[in-house]
Amino acid sequence: MTTTSENTTTPDLSWIDDITMTELERNPYKAYERLRAEAPLAYVPVLGSYVASTAEICREVATSPDFEAVITPAGGRTFGHPAIIGVNGDVHADLRGMVEPALQPVEVDRYVDDLVRPIARRYLEQFEDDGRAELVSQYCEPVSVRSLGDLLGLRDVESDTLRDWFAKLSRSFTNAAMTENGEFANPAGFDEGDQAKAEIQAAVDPLIDKWIVEPDDSAISRWLHDGMPPGRTRERSYIYPTIYVYLLGAMQEPGHGMASTLVGLFSEPDQMEQVVDDAQLIPRAISEGMRWTSPIWSATARISTGPVTVAGVDLPAGTPVILSYGAANHDTDVYEAPTRFDLHRPPLPHLAFGAGNHACAGIYYANHVMRIALEELFETIPVLERDTSARSEFWGWGFRGPTSLNVTWEV
Amino acid sequence: MGFTATVGGRAVACGEEQPILDAFLRAGVWMPNSCNQGTCGTCKLRVVSGEVDHHDSPADTLTDDERAAGLALACQARLCSDAVVESTAAAGGRTTHPLRDLVATVLDVEEIARETLRLRLDLPEPIAFDPGQYVELVVPGTGERRQYSLANTAGEDKVLELHIRLVPTGVATEGWIFGGLAAGDRVEITGPLGDFVLPTEDDGGPMVLIGGGTGLAPLLGLARTVLARDPQREVLLYHGVRGASDLYALDLLTELAGAHPRFRFVPVLSHEPPPDGREHRTGFPTDHFVDDVASARGWSGWLCGPPAMVEAGVKAFKRRRMAPRMIHREKFTPADAAS
Lengths: 411, 339
Fold this sequence. Notes:
Chain A is of the alpha+beta class and 411 residues long.
C-alpha cells in the first residue's frame, strides 16, 4: 500500500494548471495574487514556463549571476535573433552600446523637450476644442509613437502606421500559450506580427540603404555606424530584431504609461486636481502609474545558467523564468493596498522598468516623454472629466494598459 | 550658538530657535515659500544630511512618511546640527528680497469701508519687495504675529499700505488695530514674505485678478505695476464683497480705468442688494468671470481672499482653460480668529 503525505503538507496547486491566456489577458492580478501567496515561483503550464510573481523573487532572478537573459518563446518567434532583450555577453554589450548614447540622461535632456512638446501640442490642437476625446488613440499613443518615430528617423512613417505595427507586434509577442508538448498553441497568432515585420522592412530598408551612404542624426543611422570601422556598418539583419524591440515596446509603453497614470488619477479626483494644479507632481504621478499598472507587465524572462535554487524551488540549468513585474509591483509585502492608485504612497522603488543589466535602457527617455505629454495635456485642458458612460478597459498580460479612455471637458 | 545649513553650495547660519526659511531669506537665499505658518507646504525641503527639529510642523502638511523620508518644512524646522538641505521644487533661480525686521511708525489709520481700515506705516528706511507680497505685524504684548498683504507697488517703498478687516474678538484687530492704534504709534514688522508675485518673465498676457474683501490689497499693487509697465495691457479686476459699503479704493480704481482703456474694474456684491440708484453686479465674482470671458487661454489669474473664493476661482479659471501654472493664489487663513 502506498500513501502520500503530499496533500497534507503542500497546498493544492492544481488550479495553476487551469490558468488560461484569456483570463491573464483580461485581468492577471487575481491569478498572480494567488501565485504570490501560494507559489511565488511556479511552473505555469499555459505559459510553458516558471513565473516569478513577488518583488523579492523578480528582483533576485533579474539580478542573479546564476541567470542570464532569454527571450520568451513567443517573443523570440516574433523578433528573431539577436534582440537586445534576449541576448547576453558581447552581443548584448554591443547592442546596449549601440542604443544607449541617445538615451543617456544628458543626451535626452538636450533634445527631449524640443522633440516631444511640439508633437504633444500638435495632437492637442486637433481636438482641444471638441469637448471630448478618446485619449489613448488620440493622444497617448500618437505622442509616444511620433516622438520615438522622429527620434529613430522614421519621420515619413505615419503615426497610425506606427501604432498599427506596435499593436500587431505586441499581440504576436504575447501569443504565449503553449501546448503540453511545448508547441505554440496558437501558431496563427504570429501571422499579424510577420505581416507587420514585412511592412516594417519595406519601409525601413530604403532608409537603411540611404543611411549607409548618408549618415544623419537619427537613432537608426547611428546604430548602423557608431563604433564601426570607417566604411563599415552593422548588418541590417543584426539590428532588425532590436528595431522590432523598439517598434513594439518603446513605441507602445510610454502611451500605456500615460494612459494608466491618467486612469489612476481619475480614480482619485483630489489627486488629479493636485497634479493638474502643480505640474511638479507629474513625475511622481507617473511613477505611481507605472507601479499601479506596469506597462511591461510580464514580457521579460531570464534563464538559469546552472542548477540553482530560488525561493525553495530547485531549477535545473536552462530553466526559463518569466518576470512578472506587474505582479511584483502589487506585492503586499512591499506596498500597502497596492491596487489603489495613490500619488502620496511612500515612493518606494518599483520594478516597472526591470532590474539588473537588462533593465530598460529607455527609462529616462520614457519618463520624460510621459511627463511632457501630461504637462501639455493638463496645461491645455485643465478641466478633463472622465466620460463615465464609456468604460475604460485594461487589457494585456505581457503588456498592459487601458484600451481606451474617454474624456470630456467644457468648450 | 547655532548651526549651518548648506543649500546649493551656500552656507547659511541659522540661530538655534530660528526657522531655516527665516535664516535663508535673511541671507538672500531664495526658497519657495508662501504661508510661513506650516499650512501650505510650499517651503518643503529635503534634509540631505544633519538633524532638524520639526517644531510646529502640522501632520497634515508634513506627514510621518515625509518626515521619515527626510522632508521638512523650512518655515517651521530648526536645525539641531549642521545640515545640508535641498529644495524639493525647482528653485528657478529667482532672486529674493532680504527679509527685514523694522520698526515702523503709524502714519495714519483711516476707515475706508465698513469695518475696514487702511493702515499706512512709515518706514525708517526703504524696503525692497515685490508687489503682492505681505508683511507680518507683531501684536504688542501677545507674541502673536499677523500677516497683511501690501497694497503697494515696488516704488512705494517708504510708506507701506495695509488693508485690515475687523475680526470680532481678534487679538490683532479688535484688540489692537481697531482698538486705538493711532498716528505716531510704533509697529514692529517683518517682511517681505510670500510668493504671490509677478513671474520673473512676465509674458504681458491678459490678467484677471479677483479679490475678496481686503484681498483687494495685493491686487492693487499688482494691477498698478503691470499697467505702469504696459498701459495697454488687458487687466480685469473683480472685487467681491458682501455689500456696497464694503467697497473701497473706488477713486483709485476709477482713475486707473480712465487712464487705461483695457483695464476694467468690476465690483460684485454677494449678500446685499445694491443701494438705490446704483448698478452693481450681484453674486460671486468667480461666476461673473465665467460669464464675461469665453476663453482665458494665455491669461494669468490672481486670486486673493477666503479659501472658498480662491477654490472657486481656480475652478472658474480652469473652466475657461487658463493654464494651471498661470494661476496664482493667496489664501486668507483665519489666523486672527481668537487663537
